[in-house]
Amino acid sequence: MQVVEAQVIEVFGARIPTIGLGTMTLKEDVCVQAVKTALQLGYRHLDTAAFYGNERENGEGLRASGVNRNDVFICTKVRQGDLMPDDFARVLEQSLKNLQLPYVDLLLIHWNNPDIPLKLSVGALCKAKKDGFTKHVGVANFTTAMLDEAWAVTSEPLVCNQIEMHPFINQDKVLAASKKHGMAVVAYCPIARGKVPGAEALERIGKAHGKTSAQVSLRYLVQMGVCAIPRTATPEHLKQNLDVFDFTLSDAEMAELKKLNATNMRVVNPPHAPKWDTP
Ligand SMILES: NC(=O)c1ccc[n+]([C@@H]2O[C@H](COP(=O)([O-])OP(=O)(O)OC[C@H]3O[C@@H](n4cnc5c(N)ncnc54)[C@H](OP(=O)(O)O)[C@@H]3O)[C@@H](O)[C@H]2O)c1
Which of 80, 129, 224, 250 has the smallest C-beta neighbourhood within 10 Å, fewest atoms? Predict the structure, then answer.
């Protein structure tokens, strides 16, 4: 049975394609080819960051794909060391030069910097939107408390919180807080950075649907109303990761996957991470 459902999540006028291509660690021609192939396969959402060192390759892949730029939702991010307004403006200008684009669709604060007041960093983010360098703004790795603080000072809607999500982590609190603010949630590490393939429950559930464990993980997120940005440069995996809209996980299967949240496996936890919400 063909399941018809939104493949775009719309918040505050931002139309975010549910599945995007994560590009962290993809470098040089591998990145160009992955972006080009993904767009030709039907992806319409790219995730890069100044920190990834591949904005130039994302732009190159976009142009090589032949897909109209206006049909693609492009996200980049400003890292925590560059959140003072002058630095912010300077690095954003460089990001746009790298991408060879006049604007992106979504600009995120990559990680908060506790030494810089949110009034300044969020102010710089909002200015980028007012100046026309991004269509929408948002945050990544924000906790429930940080979301409340950011919303208290922002002049523009923060359309998303990009956070780690997969079956092996419980993000219920920050998910609820993001939704309370009307934000979309974009799941990074949606395949738990390669820990999903081989996981017994996901393999078994996948088999029952004629799908892979990676597709089950993505479908679990999609059914929770979350966008996901899996990263791969492998053409077969690129295809599989987009092909998650023609099956539905049952309530029992969703509940079984939800139980795996207790594994409490956080893949991304650098020294500059905030004090995360506890499950
Ligand atoms: N905001 C932040 O702080 C933040 C942090 C981390 C990541 N991100 C973003 O989120 C994106 C995704 O996260 P991630 O790259 O860390 O991890 P991920 O997407 O969860 O995992 C990537 C790994 O999964 C494998 N994979 C992908 N599709 C597969 C499939 N269909 N079947 C089997 N294996 C598959 C890839 O291997 P193959 O190459 O062999 O396919 C790769 O080893 C990043 O690229 C980045 O854009 C953001």
Answer: 250
Residues 104 and 24: their CA atoms lie apart, in Å, by 17
Distance 256 CA to ligand 1 centre (A): 23
**91 touches 78 (CB < 8 A):** yes
User: Which atom of ligand 1 is closest in space to residue 237's alpha carbon?
Assistant: 31
Amino acid at 276: W
- Whole-model pTM over 0.70: yes
Whether 103 sits among the annotated catalytic residues: the reply is no
DSSP conformational letter for 172: H
Domain residues of the chain, as ranges? Answer: 10-193+227-233
10-193+227-233 placed in CATH 3.20.20.100: yes
Helix (H) or strand (E) holding 85: helix 85-99
Which amino acid belongs to residue 190?
P
Q: How far apart are CA 167 and CA 150, in angstroms?
A: 28
User: How confident is the model over 43-100, as pLDDT tens digits?
Assistant: 999 999 999 999 999 999 999 999 999 999 999 999 999 999 999 999 999 999 999 9
Residue 195 alpha carbon to ligand 1 centre in Å: 10
On the CB side of 200, CA atoms within 13 Å amount to 2
